[in-house]
Amino acid sequence: MEDCPLIYLNNAATSWPKPPEVLAEVTRCLQAPIFEQGRSTAGGVTDYPSATREALADFFHAEEPDHFIFTQSATDSLNLLIGGFVKNQKAPFHAITTELEHNSILRPLSSLAGEGHLTLSVLPFHDDRVTLPAIKKALQPDTRLVVMTHGSNVLGSLQHIRPIAEYCAENDIFLIIDGAQTAGQIPINLTELPGGAFVFTGHKALFGIPGIGGFYLTEPAAIAPTRTGGTGTDSRSLAHPGEMPQKYEAGTPNYPGIASLLACIRFIERQGQDAITSKCRGLTALFIRELGRDRAITLYTPAPDLPVVSFNIPGLENDEAGYILAKAYNIITRTGLHCAPLIHERIDGGKGCIRVSFSHLNTPEECCQAATAIHEVAESADR
Fold first, then answer.
1. What confidence tens digit (pLDDT) does each residue in 324-365 have?
2. Quick one: CA torsion of 202, 208, 212, 216, rounded to 10 degrees?
3. What secondary structure, in 3-state letters, does the chain show?
4. Predicted confidence (pLDDT) per residue in 29-51, tens digit
5. Is 207 left (phi over 0), alpha (psi -120 to 50) or beta?
């Protein structure tokens, strides 16, 4: 293994490496005095929160930069949005989610259902998707909330989210879209997704550093704040400000994380979002083609929309196979349930699987080397 260069294929968890300009912007942020609106007199330095909100609005084609709220992660965003929506309701209500979801959705909703705040329907997926007709069929008179992923972190399937968003907006149902796997990976136009909220994280396909995420909120009146504290504005009042974005942001922002978001958006725009999407799809198709030469390998994602490939090697537990790939070949994958237990109950009996996920910074050579290594591991297991 000492002669094997590291091949990192766990980008659906956290992308690596980070572009040099992202790391440089984080360093620049930490080397200069922090500019905090209402809290500092520092001048001549970047107002990272404002600049990044503007960049996000351009990148996602959103109309209101101040409706981008910074959090520590997609999980943090989902908890804030789900909890804030429940806080705003005068009575228990019905919510809908799907079997495709990450635990960052399943756990908050299940917890709130257990406490009696809502009743919950979890819709099964068919052909790796949950469609608008399935959601319509599950509606109840008191359905007020739908929370669902934009792209599966296990199956790599994209949900046809626009008709769902339009239907929810027309029928007074709040829609929270988990874009953790799609933001930075595919083009996203928020003007085509009316109402609700779109959640993103910085450390995956956006190439930012861990600890930064956020959401875009079209309808602030739908979500009650769940945190209060210092904002640097209207400090005389003991009531938290109701203006955006301060309504949902309390305390000192994660300036290095926000700076990384600003740099990564510039990086993606220089590369071209369409070019990134196309390259990742090409890498995924190449890897699946190479992997498919071994019919013994159980492939769960034969044609994913996102650069996510899940599989198992017969005769080997998925964690054992991942350990061999890491120790013998210096190939980093992800094994287990990927924080999405309901998917695995359907596809592999709840045992989990090996997941390979690519980024724009991977190469075709790495795809072929990884596939060859997996073939060798499978042959060894078959002996």
1. 999 999 999 999 999 999 999 999 999 999 999 999 999 999
2. -40
3. CCCCCCEECECCCCCCCCCHHHHHHHHHHHHCCCCCCCCCCCCCCCCHHHHHHHHHHHHHCCCCHHHEEEECCHHHHHHHHHHHHHHHCCCCEEEEEECCCCHHHHHHHHHHHHCCCEEEEEECCECCECCHHHHHHHCCCCEEEEEEECECCCCCCECCHHHHHHHHHHCCCEEEEECCCCECCECCCHHHCCCCEEEEECCCCCCCCCCCEEEEECCHHHCCCCCCCCCCCCCCCCCCCCCCCHHHCCCCCCHHHHHHHHHHHHHHHHHCHHHHHHHHHHHHHHHHHHHCCCCCCEECCCCCCCCEEEEECCCCCHHHHHHHHHHHHCEECEEECCCCHHHHHHHCCCCCEEEEECCCCCCHHHHHHHHHHHHHHHHHHHC
4. 999 887 666 445 455 578 999 99
5. left
Query: In whole numbers, what is the pLDDT of the chain averaged over residues?
Result: 94
Beta-carbon contacts of 65 under 8 Å, excluding residues fewer than 6 positions away, are: 50, 53, 54, 56, 57
Q: Between vectors from CA 309 to CA 304 and to CA 311, what angle results, nearest 5°?
A: 125
Token digits for 347? Answer: 């596809």
Q: Contact at 8 Å (CB) between 293 and 145?
A: no
Low-confidence ranges of the chain (pLDDT < 70): 1-2, 35-44, 383
- By CB neighbour count within 10 A (0-12 exposed, 13-18 middle, 19+ buried), where does 291 fall? buried
In the numeric block, which tokens belong to residue 12? 């659906």
